[in-house]
Amino acid sequence: MKTVICCIVLLVLFHAHAIAGDAWTYITEFDGQEIGYVLSMASEADGTIWVSSNRGVFRYKDSVWSDEKAHFKDGDFTGIVNVTVSPNGNVWFCHSNSLIKYDGNNWSYYNYTDSTIELSGLSVDSKENVWCTTKSDSGLLKFDGKEWKILQANGGIVRNSVSGIKVSPEDDVWIRYGDQFI
Length: 182
Known about the structure:
Elements: H1 2-20, E1 29-30, E2 33-34, E3 38-43, E4 49-53, E5 56-61, E6 64-67, E7 80-85, E8 91-95, E9 98-102, E10 107-111, E11 119-124, E12 130-134, E13 140-143, E14 148-151, E15 164-167, E16 173-177, E17 180-181
Antiparallel strand pairs: 1-2, 3-4, 4-5, 5-6, 7-8, 8-9, 9-10, 11-12, 12-13, 13-14, 15-16, 16-17
């Protein structure tokens, strides 16, 4: 019942903003820099918005846009397919076979050793464990800050083709196979 009421409230709010006309802003560039095709977005508690796109990684903070590609090794920002903010406030980026963490001051890089497995999606629990889906139907990866663990159909998950993931505020890990959440 709570979910239904929440959805109705969101629909009413969305409808009210859609009718207001001037409530929406369409942004495709800032300072002549094209944002491009948006792959993922995440927001921090202070209102900072992170955007990963086919043209780079951008941050919107205090009404100012900034291009963040200088923080990525060798300028390789185009492979950033997903960005999320952990419950602890760290910003995590998913890139091919690595994770990148920004803690507000420092940028840290964590590579997965099997280069045949490409990371695609991520979510983070309250213990700062990063859960990753893969493009190659290789299962689910869990990174605890030091070690990677792969979860596959022969070890607990239903099948290797995990297409989506979300960790709830209670640290329940929800995964999607195709169109089904489990």
